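User: Quick sanity check before I run a bigger batch. Here is a single chain. Can you write out its predicted 3D structure?
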Amino acid sequence: MDVAIALPNAVPGTSGEQLTEWARRAEAREFSSLGTIDRVLYDNYEPLVALAAAAAVTDRIGLATTVLLAPLRTNEVELAKQALSINALSGGRLTLGVGLGAREDDYEVSGVELSGRGRRLDEMLERIGEIWEDEETGPKLAGKPGLVLGGHADASFARTARFGQGWIAAASGPDQFRAGAEKAKAAWAAAGREGAPRLMALAYFALGENAAGDANASLGDYYAWLGEEVAAMIVTGAAKDADTVKQQVAAYEGAGCDELVFCPSSGDPAQVDLLADAVGI
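Assistant: Done. Predicted structure follows.
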């Protein structure tokens, strides 16, 4: 199983210098990819912009939106071109992971209806696929980006089989990942796709002397919209020591995960080295 690390693009207060140093260290410590998470009405860096910055200071590490809330981007042609651009500039390192999102305020501020977003995403993905195949639309120096789909509804698994190369689970734990992975594989087979989908998942971490405080401040704030009880469960579930990191890696690998993306609770680049040491890379 590959182990990836997300950029701290959604940790409030992270500077550009911290973000690019984070990317450099992640490549030096041989993480498989740099991920990003997405919101609109929040103090975060836009995922594609953050990955463009990371691409400029790295050479080998993968770049992935894990995930980007595609229905909030109302011009799918522009989104397709942005993805092609990052893929070309990075030498073919981009995986575009997309999902729906459920925050009403993100949709409201974007002027997009929350209802019907699944249907709109299907239409967007079909159009993006056309743009990526269009000889007149580029840059295509590095070919097409990878494409993975998020979500745990039946429609999400069908969408994965129709459009994607893989499926990515939310940070809901290895048991829910395993259940979702089986559904993704079943949808893949039912659609007549050859081989198997690439299976990815997210997990949260906070390491070091202030691990508990960082997890509470970052994840507690990010997930406050779900209510105090749910936000507290997410904070509790974050890996806060090396042993828990190792346990999560083993559990996800045992569940058949191909790439596990650890998402941070601090913008301090020292977290990269702490995670790499815990994973053993």
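The first strand starts at residue 2 and ends at 6.

User: Great, the batch can go ahead then.
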